[in-house]
């Protein structure tokens, strides 16, 4: 189960404190498609670390190591997926 953190609205004025809260999924709710994507990516642990950091510090600047780790994980996953798609396309082309 993942927790969705609200994205704070940015304004041109001096930022006030963020209201980062964890939302617990109820049993009768369908899983969010983004949560499903993250779960399938293998990056759920790093995503959760970002959420935990944001809930604790309420300041994204203090969570840059976690954000970077999640970004790196998702980039690696995307590259693996792209390689797999390319491999499938090459195999399909060889059969024709």
TrEMBL record:
Record region (Disordered): 1-30, 77-96
Location in the cell: Mitochondrion
Presence of the UniProt keyword Mitochondrion in the record: yes
Residues of the CHCH domain: 43-75
InterPro entries membership: CHCH (IPR010625), Coa4-like (IPR039870)
Keyword set includes Zinc-finger: no
GO cellular component: mitochondrial intermembrane space
UniProt feature, compositional bias: Polar residues: 10-22
Ranges of biased composition (kind: Basic and acidic residues): 78-90
Pfam families named among the record's database cross-references: CHCH
GO biological process assignments: mitochondrial respiratory chain complex IV assembly
Keywords: Disulfide bond, Mitochondrion
This protein's name: CHCH domain-containing protein
